[in-house]
Write a structure and sequence with these properties.
The protein is 34% helix and 21% strand. By secondary structure, it is an alpha/beta fold. The chain has a single domain, classed as Rossmann fold. Strands 1, 2, 3, 4, 5 and 6 form a six-stranded mixed β-sheet that branches. A hairpin with a 2-residue loop joins β3 and β4 (93-94). The longest helix has 15 residues, at 18-32. It is globular and about 50 Å long.
Length: 187
């Protein structure tokens, strides 16, 4: 039996921030359950916004017209059995790094990426004390709606409040939930 492949997309500029801590725990859960995990740090990639040119939706399209770091990411998305989007709340929604990738998923069909056979997980951190006043719910709702639209089953969501980088690790319950989500994604 082949190992499941879990692709973790880190959408924070902080490599050791709170969302990266959550993502690391999800990865540990997935690896512990036998999955192969790859983590991609989005902030270090050159990904342009979607141009709405529809080149990816034209007959005989060979993909997105933009030649940037999203091109190899499409191959990773296609090969993975599960996707994890991890990031902080920025200005009442997901980070710009994450949103760029979400918008560029518009070209999935041109790369023959079928999300219906995959699973997704989401990890969010926010600096406020409440997921509503922080805007975390806005980001979570965006993921839920987008994934429902493309037929990508959402295996779970973990989110929590923390201000200082890595501070979220002190939330033992949340760390356990993140590990359990990793196990679900590996199954």
């Amino acid at each position: 039996m082949d190992k499941k492949k879990v692709l973790v997309l880190l959408g924070s500029p902080r490599k050791k921030g709170n969302s990266a801590t959550l993502a690391g725990r999800i990865a540990a859960g997935a690896e512990g359950a036998g999955a192969e995990v790859e983590m991609v740090y989005l902030h270090g990639l050159k990904i342009s916004p979607c141009q709405s040119c529809y080149a990816c939706h034209k007959p005989k399209s060979e993909g997105c017209a933009i030649d940037d770091d999203m091109q190899p990411l499409y191959a990773k998305l296609k090969a993975a059995d599960a996707w994890v989007f991890a990031g902080p709340v920025y200005w009442f929604s997901m980070s710009a790094q994450t949103k760029l990738v979400m918008d560029r998923l518009f070209a999935m069909g041109a790369y023959k990426i079928d999300p219906r056979g995959k699973k997704a997980g989401v990890a969010m951190s926010f600096g406020d004390t409440d997921p509503f006043t922080s805007g975390c719910v806005n980001a979570l709702r965006t993921f839920q709606d987008a994934f429902r639209y493309i037929g990508l089953p959402l295996a779970g969501i973990v989110y929590g409040s923390a201000n200082e980088p890595g501070e979220i690790a002190a939330n033992a319950t949340l760390m356990q939930q993140a590990e359990e989500l990793g196990k679900k994604l590996a199954g």
